[in-house]
Amino acid sequence: MSYIIDRRLNSKDKSAVNRQRFLKRYKKHIKRAVSDAVSKRSITDMERGENIGIPQKDIEEPTFGHGHGGVRSRVLPGNREFNAGDKLRRPEGGEGGGAGNGSASDSGEGMDDFVFQITQEEFLEFMFEDLELPNLVKRQLLANDAVKIVKAGISEVGTPNQLNIVRSMRSAYARRIALGAKKRRRKNEILALLQNMDDGIEARALQQELEELERKLSRIPYIDDFDLKFNINKQEPQPSSKAVMFCLMDVSGSMDQRTKDIAKRFFILLYLFLQRNYEKTEVVFIRHHSTAKEVDEQEFFYSRETGGTVVSSALKLMHEIIEERYPVSEWNIYGAQASDGDNWTNDSPICHDLLNEQLLPLLQYYCYIEITDRGHQELWQFYEKLVEANPEAFAMRGIEDYADIYPVFRDLFHRDTAGLRAS
Amino acid sequence: MTDKLLSSGTAWSFDLIEKYDREIARIAQGYRLDTYPNQIEIIRSDQMMDAYASVGMPIGYNHWSYGKQFLNVERSYKRGQMGLAYEIVINSNPCISYLMEENTMTMQALVIAHACYGHNSFFKNNYLFKSWTDADSIIDYFVFARNFIAECEERHGAEMVESVLDSCHALMHYGTDRYKRPYPISAAEELARQKEREEYVQQQVNDLWRTIPVSDSRREPTDQPRFPLEPQENLLYFIEKNAPLLEPWQREIVRIVRKIAQYFYPQRQTQVMNEGWATFWHYTILNDMYDQQLVDDGFMMEFLHSHSSVVAQPSFDSPHFSGINPYALGFAMMRDIRRICESPTEEDKRWFPEIAGSDWLTTLHFAMENFKDESFVQQFLSPRVIRDFHLFSIVDDDESETIDVNAIHDDDGYRSVREALAMQYNLSSREPNIQVHDVDIRGDRSLTLHHQQNNRNPLNDDTQEVLKHLYRLWKFDVHLYSFDGEEVDRSFRVPTRGISLNSK
Fold first, then answer.
1. Fold exhibited by the domain A239-413
2. How confident is the model at residue B2 (pLDDT cuts 50, 70, 90)?
3. Is residue B238 part of a domain?
4. Of A109, A121, B211, B441, which alpha carbon lies 20 to 30 A from A248's?
């Protein structure tokens, strides 16, 4: 006799735990591969999975076995031309066809990498692992969506999907006991009496009463409307932190195609990171050349408008927007600025003062990346002073090439367990 | 006539599977196939990948290596390098076999005949399985193992447990008693016994090491008996019972890995027979169904197509060659035994006087029940099969300029080819012979292993790594001497001198 069982509805991903453990064990390898992939990919192409290769020898599980050498005999199928006593030249490059022990993939030498796929989700996770927005402290009660559903006891009214079966049955049981108790007691009395009684009028009356009792007992309903108990849930608002990120990009004439591309990549990374890890984060995009303009995401990344350079215009605009829309008491405010460092001569001191006096006191964190392979200019030097004065709230890095983007990004937003952010 | 037909077309349904199973069971019974009850489980292809990744354990404990296995399977499946096998069958009572929902009715019938009646009867009746595994309780044992290891992870951290498992896995093939029959695994009281064992073993270990105190060493006679008295081949067993510093829970993990190795040990020794037997029966049973007009021509065409790809044997020089296909060799030998019984030639009568002309079914059952690959080949590989496969034997001596063909499929060669092929299936010649030789109980507690070379075959490059794992369990120095005859050809040592080592 056979039992046939349909297991198709059993849970998926029985191997998920083991897969996770494997990923965890080879995290170092995977991170390296992810980091390579990030710098190779085009900007619009961050959100997909990746093939990860790990050298076969790094993941092998060692076992005792035979190495090459010694005397070895093998039986092979498919002989066509050999006769006993034939001597064959040893084939170049090791064994013909692999030794007979172990599975083929384990014993061969010079195997390819062990390659496997990680999902887009995992790719991003590895990409943004250990990164965070620094100093995210201001928390606030938000009106909508930040609610958690919590149990709030039991109610007599509710919808069928919230029926609490255990409590309902328990109360029905109690009711049945309570309603029937007196009658059952009387019934037992009668039964006892009847036992030592001869048939007679009295007995017949008792018999009748007994039947009446039984009828009544059987009428007690098994479950009744007022037995039903329902779970009630209520929504509790959750405090959450609101944050806004200002992305300031220089699009002046001095920024060539490559520099712009690097800046864009940096901001794409930042944007992805925020979108993924901070649901409640707003992003404000500001492009500037000699004048600054707030734009939407599309325009920020794809518009081609250009002109001279006045960096302070962007900072001023940022300050205006904060005053107008983002009260400092409620919002965690961040800024990220990318430029080639080229600025109108008298503007750099203005930038310094703007940041130092007006902006930095409002901000949680501000970072500046300078994309140039030439020497740093005035703006960099003025900003350096800011680092000294505000080591926790201000950071700056130089980027020379595509390959620097991801490391610098990681560096700027690396989770700092000590709580101090040394530049 | 046609109303006898069980189905037409490729779609399966639960009713149909039941119908086919009934018919197959009826025919199997006619051939005296004695099986455990079958538990046929219908699964999706991703579940099949899970089943694959857990290497034959329907309930496995968690370990990264199974994750690696899974990624590997997933990749080859997605690339289309590997069709998922249509059969995974568990040696348990009831015997669990998986059917994939994507398969056609024909394939389901093939798998039912192959796994549920072929493999199943092999598991129940082959002497190795009978004496080494306990199908009744193995599922319970897997459950116990999984829970125990999960509990250890909770208590001691996943990483601690993982490192012990890593080390045990490295020595897994050295966790079986090769010559001694184990007690059947009893699982119902496994948990209770585990607690008892924990205390008892620790006591034993303490006893073994108790005689060490320095103050007593004066009184020790110089010629202490060696410990262990006899060399020990079961390294994991030796560690479980004697490693000085293992925690009780670590000992239990060593034991679990050892028990599981033991459970798989018969399967590793009966690949050719097991697959040959199952293939022979799916072939025979499905052909009978056709003869009884239960299935139609379309069914047979599809069946024969997949059957012939299963039993294909590429030549040694083909790019598809990856060793001798156990399905092909096993199937050919099983068929050949039937042929020898039913219509023996003069040659067969000379080679197999005792079975030529006998009742084929009885002979075949006898062969299935009482042999393993090595002895099965030694006993039943006929000149006919050697010729059909064009088998030839080569000797590769690294001291010689050439590789020598020493026997081919001719009168002078049959015996040597058979001998050599049997040897190829002998586990103890496939795996290096490594045994615990000595423990320095009075001194530095170091553990000494001896490897006896066979035909000057050296140890592989993993050796040092494996010894590190052994060291992790033993926690004192480990030496390994590789002997060529009487002489030490090479020696290994962990920790290597002069390098500071962390035991974790």
1. Rossmann fold (3.40.50)
2. low
3. no
4. A121
Are A84 and B406 within 8 A, CB to CB? yes
Q: How many domains, chain B?
A: 3
Average pLDDT of chain B?
A: 87
Domain segments of chain A as ranges:
18-59+114-120, 160-232, 239-413
**Number of inter-chain CB pairs under 8 A, A vs B:** 264
Residue tagged 């400092």 (tokens): A328
Euclidean distance between CA atoms B405 and B392, whole angstroms? 7
B345's tokens: 């030639």
Provide the angle, in degrees to the nearest 10, between the axes of the packed helices B248-269 and B271-291.
Answer: 50
B420 chain-A contacts, CB cut-off 8 A: 73-75
Cβ contact, residue pair B324, A89, below 8 Å: no
Q: Hey, are the CB atoms on B457 and A67 less than 8 Å from each other? A: yes
Q: Let me know whether B360 and B410 are in one domain.
A: yes
In this structure, the answer to whether residues B450 and B418 fall within a common structural domain is no
In this structure, the answer to whether residues B454 and B361 fall within a common structural domain is no
Domain end marker among B427, B454, B475: B427
Q: Let me know if residue B106 belongs to a domain.
A: yes
Cβ neighbours of B334 (radius 10 Å): 26
* Averaged pLDDT, A71-96: 80
Instruction: Check whether residue B360 and residue B296 sit in a common domain.
Output: no
Which chain B residue shows the shortest CA-CA distance from A11?
A: B47
Task: Please answer whether residues B470 and B478 qualify as being in contact, where contact means their C-beta atoms are separated by less than 8 angstroms.
Answer: yes
- Is B401 found in the same domain as B321? yes
Statement to judge: residues B290 and B382 lie in one domain: no
The answer to whether B81 and A41 have CB atoms below 8 angstroms apart is no
Interchain contact, B66 vs A15, CB within 8 Å: yes
CB contact B216 to A (< 8 Å): no
Residue A66 sits at the vertex; the CA angle it makes with A60 and A71, to the nearest 5 degrees, is 150
CA distance A287 to A337: 10
Cβ-Cβ contacts under 8 Å, B38 against chain A = 1-3
Which among A63, A81, A87, A109 is the top mutation candidate for probing chain B, defined by the most B β-carbons within 10 Å of its own β-carbon? A63
Q: Is residue B158 part of a domain?
A: no
Show residues of chain A in contact with B70, CB under 8 Å: 15, 18-19, 22
Q: Which domain covers residue B334, as residue numbers?
A: 311-427
Reported confidence tier of residue B223, pLDDT bands at 50, 70, 90 = low
Which residues numbered 45-64 in A keep a CB inside 8 Å of some CB on B? 59-64
**Residue linked to tokens 């030998």:** B333
Same domain, B331 and B397: yes
Q: B405 vs A65: CB contact, 8 Å cut-off?
A: no
Q: Is the Cβ pair A79, B391 closer than 8 Å?
A: yes
Residue A257: its pLDDT value, please? 81
d(CA A39, CA A25): 24
- More confident position, A103 or A135: A135
Assess B81–A contact: CB distance below 8 Å, yes or no: no
In angstroms, the CA B327 to CA B307 distance is: 10
My answer on whether B297 and B323 are in the same domain is no
* pLDDT tens digits, B369-390: 999 999 999 999 999 999 999 9
More confident residue, A283 or B360: B360
